[in-house]
Amino acid sequence: MRIPFIAGNWKMFKTKAEAAEFAKEFVKLYQGTDVRTAICAPFTDLELLVEAFKDTNIGVGAQNVHFEDEGAFTGEISVKMLEEIGVDYCIVGHSERRQYFGETDETVNKKLKKLFETDIVPIMCVGELLEERDAGKAFEVVGRQLEEGLSGISKEDASKLVIAYEPVWAIGTGRTATPEQAEEMCAFIREGLEKLYDEDTADSVIIQYGGSVKPANATEIMNMPEIDGALVGGASLKPVDFMAIIDF
């Protein structure tokens, strides 16, 4: 039985003072729930959030990591640095990292392998561009991202993975894939995992939907049988809105 997992992705928002204010309000709103919950925040906020959420079930995640332990990589953060802070999750391969910072399926694969050396759970993002969907290539693109991203990764590690399907055309645009479109792709991803590994591994992987998830559409999306949660952008910046999604 897969437990629903709602993760907020703050992107490049919130100073430490703003993060502290959010945490204070969110902890008051957050009550015991069977929904897995996490905030993926900018690096400067992570240590503060780990401390703020230490007596709760709210996890903390990074938004990126480098695949080397250390070296001449100005501006990058290593897995060891995240481990020292005590983060629980790390987003890998977000479309904005792919689009603006040269993330590829190869670097996604290297980052996954490095994270699997630790207890930090990767949230692997996949998703197609609008022109790829319009050209009928959505499944081809996501299938390739899945296969190349997971190349050489054991089924034991893959079973711990969280996959977030985020159609690029629905991120921050106000457009959302219909629940049926999201369900179709999440089912395709699970079938792909079964082909790469086996049925038990595929059944154990949490598959989230991301792309303009809001309180108004969360219930309809989350009621789809192959969708196990959501990676939430803008709506995770306000405690009340994020809590409304968790309470879907």
TrEMBL record:
<feature type="binding site">
    <location>
        <begin position="9"/>
        <end position="11"/>
    </location>
    <ligand>
        <name>substrate</name>
    </ligand>
</feature>
<keyword id="KW-0963">Cytoplasm</keyword>
<dbReference type="InterPro" id="IPR022896">
    <property type="entry name" value="TrioseP_Isoase_bac/euk"/>
</dbReference>
<comment type="subunit">
    <text>Homodimer.</text>
</comment>
<feature type="binding site">
    <location>
        <position position="172"/>
    </location>
    <ligand>
        <name>substrate</name>
    </ligand>
</feature>
<keyword id="KW-0312">Gluconeogenesis</keyword>
<keyword id="KW-0324">Glycolysis</keyword>
<comment type="pathway">
    <text>Carbohydrate biosynthesis; gluconeogenesis.</text>
</comment>
<feature type="active site" description="Electrophile">
    <location>
        <position position="94"/>
    </location>
</feature>
<feature type="active site" description="Proton acceptor">
    <location>
        <position position="166"/>
    </location>
</feature>
<comment type="similarity">
    <text>Belongs to the triosephosphate isomerase family.</text>
</comment>
<dbReference type="GO" id="GO:0004807">
    <property type="term" value="F:triose-phosphate isomerase activity"/>
</dbReference>
<keyword id="KW-0413">Isomerase</keyword>
<comment type="function">
    <text>Involved in the gluconeogenesis. Catalyzes stereospecifically the conversion of dihydroxyacetone phosphate (DHAP) to D-glyceraldehyde-3-phosphate (G3P).</text>
</comment>
<dbReference type="InterPro" id="IPR035990">
    <property type="entry name" value="TIM_sf"/>
</dbReference>
<comment type="pathway">
    <text>Carbohydrate degradation; glycolysis; D-glyceraldehyde 3-phosphate from glycerone phosphate: step 1/1.</text>
</comment>
<protein>
    <recommendedName>
        <fullName>Triosephosphate isomerase</fullName>
        <ecNumber>5.3.1.1</ecNumber>
    </recommendedName>
</protein>
<feature type="binding site">
    <location>
        <position position="212"/>
    </location>
    <ligand>
        <name>substrate</name>
    </ligand>
</feature>
<dbReference type="InterPro" id="IPR013785">
    <property type="entry name" value="Aldolase_TIM"/>
</dbReference>
<dbReference type="Pfam" id="PF00121">
    <property type="entry name" value="TIM"/>
</dbReference>
<feature type="binding site">
    <location>
        <begin position="233"/>
        <end position="234"/>
    </location>
    <ligand>
        <name>substrate</name>
    </ligand>
</feature>
<dbReference type="InterPro" id="IPR000652">
    <property type="entry name" value="Triosephosphate_isomerase"/>
</dbReference>
<dbReference type="InterPro" id="IPR020861">
    <property type="entry name" value="Triosephosphate_isomerase_AS"/>
</dbReference>
